[in-house]
């Protein structure tokens, strides 16, 4: 089954990438708002903090961590030319290396490798809830004159603490979570949160190459396929067909 | 949104080798964890053993990475000590870290022993007091934080979805409360949790799974950023 899904996704990605110039992606308000917030942060001399939450490379959230690292790169590539550092926080020590790599690449893109420090990406230990991470994000926003906090990946209840800090100290917030608790808090604390799968297509909206546009189109196509299948199954069950 | 013209990239040998190695290992791991029925059983067993070995190796790397994480934590907070008064938080963090490490080392060495048995009672007690209690308190506060945030959203803009969100939260909160509402509110809360909330959770998880498939394909064909530039 998994091979069939991967094959369909691969075929759709290749076909969509070839036809990328004719594809118009749906509007995602969070990415439009993120572009504005990143520009505002650079213009006002504020720093940007991206938190990858408790996404980890050694469990089922591995690809969420990779997608969050991509968003970190996209945000850092736009703002690493500023005076204040672009920082990242996370709870998985393996993801720490990935985050440092993405930040280094972003600084290299701006020819500012001399300004890059490995401690721009910070590891915080976590238990059931990433409370230390929440405190660390708050500290980064206050100490380093953070103007924008991007939260992407796996967040639970701790997202409420970070959101509270951003509201209290008037910082911009772009929240997201792959967990239902975190996503509920994200929805309630921001007018333009990233929703569920929107995290995985960040590059299509922020660096639209044919492959990235193809990936986003594939994700949308797969979603419509799932919806059609679910409705078809529901109708068949309603009609009494034994599946 | 249209595709931007891309400058032609020079193929680097290191990046190409890394991509080839990653694709091969990813495919072998996938075949080992999800055997294909049409392949010979002996080959499936070999692939499974190899993929298990790879997973174990990764677990070892994860354990070693923890040391890198601790080193990163110490370096960052040691640098923060110069800032006053915020450096105090970093000082407390570093003292707690080294304090717990010392307690654990003394327990392991048999120097510090609380009670008759071999369990590390003091370090577990520290974990219970400092972490578990605070985490439990935070979980209990989620609903109140959500209601407060929803009210704030309503102040910015009164929309149908914001109003529904707030109403659902209040019903669930009152449904759990022993104060009033009785059976009807409790039943409504149960229905909310089992039908719309459950459906929403599944929708979110299916969406995330589709996103993971798409990113997985990009990694499998060696087009992730790790293999570029």
Mind explaining what this structure looks like?
- The complex is a heterodimer of chains A (243) and B (229).
- Chain A has 243 residues and is of the alpha/beta class.
- Chain A has helices spanning 2-18, 29-43, 62-79, 93-109, 131-143, 158-168, 180-189, 202-206, 210-238, and strands at residues 47-53, 86-90, 121-123, 146-154, 172-175.
- Chain A folds into two domains: 1-28 and 217-243; 29-193, Rossmann fold (3-Layer(aba) Sandwich), CATH 3.40.50.
- In chain A, strand 4, helix 6 (158-168) and strand 5 (172-175) form a beta-alpha-beta unit.
- In chain A, helix 1 (2-18) packs across helix 9 (210-238), helix 3 runs parallel beside helix 4 (93-109) and helix 6 (158-168) packs parallel to helix 7 (180-189).
- Chain A is globular and about 60 Å long.
- By secondary structure, chain B is an all-alpha fold.
- Chain B has a domain at 12-72.
- In chain B, helix 2 (41-80) crosses helix 3 (87-108) and helix 5 packs across helix 6.
- The radius of gyration of chain B is 27 Å and the shape is extended.
- At the A-B interface, helix 1, helix 3, helix 4, strand 3 and helix 5 of A face helix 2, helix 4 and helix 6 of B.
Short structural description:
The complex is a heterodimer of chains A (about 240) and B (about 230). Chain A is an alpha/beta fold.
Distance between the termini of chain B: 24 Å
| Radius of gyration computed on alpha carbons of chain B | 27 Å
The percentage helix of chain A is 55-70%
What's the total count of β strands of chain A?
5
Main sheet record of chain B: none
Structural class of chain B: mainly alpha
Q: Quickly count the helices of chain A.
A: 9
Shape designation of chain B: extended
């Amino acid at each position: 089954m998994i091979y069939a899904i991967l094959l369909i996704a691969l075929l759709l990605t290749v076909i969509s990438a070839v036809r990328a110039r004719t594809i118009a992606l749906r509007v995602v308000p969070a990415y439009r708002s993120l572009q504005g917030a990143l520009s505002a942060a650079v213009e006002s001399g504020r720093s940007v903090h991206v938190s990858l939450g408790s996404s980890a490379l050694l469990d089922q959230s591995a690809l969420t961590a990779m997608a969050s690292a991509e968003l970190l790169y996209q945000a850092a590539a736009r703002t690493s030319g500023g005076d204040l550092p672009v920082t990242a926080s996370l709870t998985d020590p393996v993801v720490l290396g990935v985050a440092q790599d993405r930040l280094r690449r972003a600084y290299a893109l701006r020819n500012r490798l001399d300004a890059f420090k490995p401690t721009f990406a910070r590891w915080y230990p976590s238990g059931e809830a990433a409370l230390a991470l929440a405190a660390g994000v708050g500290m980064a926003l206050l100490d380093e004159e953070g103007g924008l906090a991007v939260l992407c990946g796996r967040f639970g209840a701790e997202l409420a603490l970070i959101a509270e800090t951003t509201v209290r100290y008037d910082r911009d917030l772009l929240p997201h979570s792959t967990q239902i608790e975190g996503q509920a808090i994200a929805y309630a604390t921001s007018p333009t949160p990233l929703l569920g799968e929107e995290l995985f297509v960040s590059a299509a909206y922020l660096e639209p190459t044919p492959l990235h546009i193809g990936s986003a189109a594939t994700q949308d196509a797969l979603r419509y396929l799932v919806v059609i299948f679910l409705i078809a199954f529901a109708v068949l069950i309603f009609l009494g067909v034994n599946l | 949104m249209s595709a931007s013209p891309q400058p032609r990239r020079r193929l680097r040998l290191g990046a190409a080798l890394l991509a080839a190695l990653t694709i091969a290992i990813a495919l072998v791991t996938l075949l080992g964890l999800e055997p294909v029925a049409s392949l010979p059983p002996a080959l499936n067993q070999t692939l499974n053993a190899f993929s298990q070995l790879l997973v174990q190796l990764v677990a070892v790397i994860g354990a070693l990475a923890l040391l890198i994480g601790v080193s990163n934590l110490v370096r960052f907070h040691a640098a923060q000590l110069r800032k006053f008064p915020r450096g105090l938080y970093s000082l407390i963090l570093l003292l707690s870290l080294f304090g717990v490490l010392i307690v654990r080392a003394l327990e392991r060495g048999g120097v510090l022993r609380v009670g008759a048995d071999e369990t590390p009672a003091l370090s577990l007690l520290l974990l219970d007091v400092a972490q578990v209690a605070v985490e439990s308190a935070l979980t209990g506060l989620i609903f109140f934080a959500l209601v407060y945030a929803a009210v704030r959203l309503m102040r910015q803009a009164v929309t149908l979805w914001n109003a529904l969100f707030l109403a659902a939260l209040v019903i669930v909160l009152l449904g759990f409360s022993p104060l009033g509402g009785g059976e009807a509110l409790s039943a409504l809360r149960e229905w909310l949790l089992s039908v719309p909330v459950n459906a929403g959770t599944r929708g979110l998880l299916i969406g995330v799974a589709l996103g993971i498939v798409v990113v997985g394909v990009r990694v499998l064909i060696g087009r992730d950023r790790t293999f570029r530039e």
